[in-house]
Amino acid sequence: MFGNQNKLMKLIPFTIFAILFVCIFVYAYRRGNKSQNNVIAASSKDGVRNNTQDNAYNGLRKQAIEITAGQLGLHLPDNQLTVYGIVMDIGMSQGVATLIAYKTGDASLYLSTGGGIIGGGKYKAVIEAAQLFINAGQEFLKRANKAENTTVATKDTVKFYLLTNRGVYLLVEEIKKFDNNSSIYNSLFADGNLLLTQLRSSGSH
């Protein structure tokens, strides 16, 4: 299990890391680098920008949000509002990175520019980080509002879609507030960063 110290150490540089990771991943993919078995074979025709018409991003993201606890093989108590999944959108000028985690330990990353990482749930570190992220989402559920829609995050915005047994809830924050540590969602964001780090590592195996 990961400690709070590790979480806090990764919190401050998260936005820089996320931007660099997305840029490097997409650039490497476009240059034809050797792909791993768990890298989605999809790419954009128009370079590094948010063009979701040319790849499977929209469909994959929609499926990730609409999947039910039952479809994941989870049995949740009817008398308790329970988070079983989180879909976190990070909106940047290069496009949107969507991090997905479920209570089962499954996790994936989709990029609106094309590409991503799937199958992270095969790795212990990813499973633990995903479940830590879900537990954090449960703690922040009281601050969330019922989602009126599930639109993709816009530039410089982060959206946390909390998937529950009673519908989808939403938290929204500006990226700059994570940069200056002024967000009330800092710890949730840090747990997402930790999962992204572990998922990235699994993608290189």
Structural description of this entry:
It is a single chain. The chain has 205 residues and is an alpha+beta fold. It has one domain. The protein has helices spanning 4-11, 14-30, 57-66, 124-140, 175-179, 186-202, and strands at residues 83-92, 95-102, 107-111, 116-117, 145-146, 157-164, 167-174. A seven-stranded antiparallel sheet has the order 4-3-2-1-6-7-5, with helices on both faces. Helix 1 (4-11) crosses helix 6 (186-202) and helix 4 (124-140) runs antiparallel to helix 6 (186-202). It is globular and about 40 Å long.
Helix count from the secondary structure assignment: 6
Quaternary structure state of the chains depicted: single chain
First-last Cα distance: 21 Å
Query: What class would the helix/strand composition place it in?
Result: alpha+beta
Strand order of the largest sheet: 4-3-2-1-6-7-5
Strand content: 15-25%
Q: What general outline do the C-alpha atoms trace?
A: globular
Mean model confidence by pLDDT: 80
Which sequence of SSEs, written as H and E, runs from N to C? HHHEEEEHEEEHH
Number of domains: 1
**Main sheet?**
7 strands, antiparallel
Low-confidence stretches: 1-13, 23-54
The beta-strand count equals: 7
Helix content: 25-40%
Rg: 16 Å
